[in-house]
Amino acid sequence: MKTISLRELHESTGAWVREAARVGTLVITDRGKPIARLEAVNADLPANPFLTRKLRPGYVKLRGRLGGGTDSTLIVSADRDAK
């Protein structure tokens, strides 16, 4: 981990951000005391949890067999016409 002063960071922020991306982590000090850490962001995106989830056994049995069901507007219209 590389250490830089707050003044150095202030003078050339862009260069230090690129340096953090290259080396990983920079510790920023103020009068010799560590006050912050500048870390690079991990570019690897996490896996989609929906693709890796475990399906419940009941759902697995029904998967692909469920139809579209009944249109709710037909039910409401029939109920209104009956009154």
Q: Overview of this structure, please?
A:
The chain has 2 domains: 2-39; 49-82, no CATH class. It has helices at 6-11, 13-23, 49-52, 57-62, 72-82, and strands spanning 2-5, 25-30, 33-39. Helices cover 46% and strands 20% of the residues. The chain is elongated and about 80 Å long. It has a 3-stranded mixed β-sheet. A hairpin with a 2-residue loop joins strand 2 and strand 3 (33-39).
Could you give the order of the helices and strands?
EHHEEHHH
Structural class: alpha+beta
Low-confidence segments, ≥5 residues, pLDDT <50? none
What is Rg? 29 Å
**Mean pLDDT rating:** 88
Side-by-side strand order of the widest sheet: 1-2-3
Tell me the number of helical segments per DSSP (H or I, 4 or more residues long): 5
* Cα separation of the termini: 77 Å
Tell me the fraction of residues in β-strands, as a range.
15-25%
Total discrete domains: 2
Helix content: 40-55%
Main beta sheet strand tally, sense and closure: 3 strands, mixed
Number of strands: 3
Basic shape: elongated
